[in-house]
Automatic annotation (TrEMBL):
<feature type="transmembrane region" description="Helical">
    <location>
        <begin position="167"/>
        <end position="187"/>
    </location>
</feature>
<dbReference type="Pfam" id="PF07686">
    <property type="entry name" value="V-set"/>
</dbReference>
<keyword id="KW-0472">Membrane</keyword>
<keyword id="KW-1133">Transmembrane helix</keyword>
<protein>
    <submittedName>
        <fullName>CD28 molecule</fullName>
    </submittedName>
</protein>
<keyword id="KW-0812">Transmembrane</keyword>
<dbReference type="InterPro" id="IPR036179">
    <property type="entry name" value="Ig-like_dom_sf"/>
</dbReference>
<dbReference type="InterPro" id="IPR013783">
    <property type="entry name" value="Ig-like_fold"/>
</dbReference>
<feature type="signal peptide">
    <location>
        <begin position="1"/>
        <end position="20"/>
    </location>
</feature>
<keyword id="KW-0325">Glycoprotein</keyword>
<dbReference type="GO" id="GO:0042129">
    <property type="term" value="P:regulation of T cell proliferation"/>
</dbReference>
<keyword id="KW-0393">Immunoglobulin domain</keyword>
<dbReference type="InterPro" id="IPR003599">
    <property type="entry name" value="Ig_sub"/>
</dbReference>
<dbReference type="GO" id="GO:0050852">
    <property type="term" value="P:T cell receptor signaling pathway"/>
</dbReference>
<keyword id="KW-0732">Signal</keyword>
<keyword id="KW-1015">Disulfide bond</keyword>
<dbReference type="InterPro" id="IPR013106">
    <property type="entry name" value="Ig_V-set"/>
</dbReference>
Length: 212
């Protein structure tokens, strides 16, 4: 076998091993105070460390449509921090920080109905060869944070507050009415017994005089 053929086979078999990219993500992350932190870890195998990377965050388990892109940014080892606005009509903001072997993403602007699976796609732009790999996906659970009160919400709260105050007062009034009614009945019964007793005493005295 010629030397050129051996070289060709070696390059064909070894290059995929020498240059590989693997991306991993946590299984589940819960938002806190309107923000969610997502760590996209990557492991690159190759002769040279990546000098320029690009990260894209997609919403959904499958697909790479434009409307699925949440944010996208490129960065280098000389510029490790970035902040970008969301793609399209999204009011989402992504802040990122490149760390050894991972990208820390802080995402703000997501709402409760944005709870979904989110995938990190990391690309090695330089040096060659170009590599692109998706992570396994992370379930981002977005909790609804209390916001500013609208006039309608304020009115509802006022009505609720008034109702909550009226209910104890109404209960107290009902208890007082029941107690008053019971007291009146007891007094009425006592007066009736007293009148009966006063009517029986003279009759007993007359009967005693007859027997004498």
């Amino acid at each position: 076998m010629s030397l050129s053929l051996l070289t060709f086979l070696c390059l064909g078999l070894c290059l995929p091993v020498w240059n590989a990219l693997r991306v991993t993500q946590p299984y589940r992350v819960v938002s806190h105070r309107g923000e969610v932190e997502l760590f996209c870890s990557y492991h690159h195998t190759g002769r040279h460390e990546p000098e320029e990377l690009r990260i894209t965050l997609y919403q959904g388990m499958y697909g790479e449509q434009e409307e699925q892109k949440v944010c996208i940014s490129s960065f280098t080892h000389n510029s490790t921090a970035f902040q970008v606005e969301g793609e399209g009509e999204r009011k989402v903001r992504c802040r990122g920080q490149l760390r050894p072997g991972k990208v820390n993403l802080t995402i703000s602007g997501l709402r409760g109905n944005d709870t979904d699976l989110y995938r990190c796609a990391i690309e090695v732009l330089y040096p060659p060869p170009y590599l692109r790999t998706f992570g396994n996906g992370t379930l981002l659970y977005i909790t609804e944070e209390p916001g500013c009160f609208t006039p309608e919400a304020q009115r509802r709260d006022d009505v609720t507050g008034e109702t909550s105050v009226r209910l104890p007062l109404a209960g107290l009034a009902a208890v007082l009415i029941v107690i008053s009614a019971i007291a009146i009945l007891l007094v009425h019964q006592v007066l009736q017994r007293k009148r009966r007793f006063e009517a029986i005493v003279p009759m007993m005295s007359q009967n005693d005089g007859r027997f004498d």
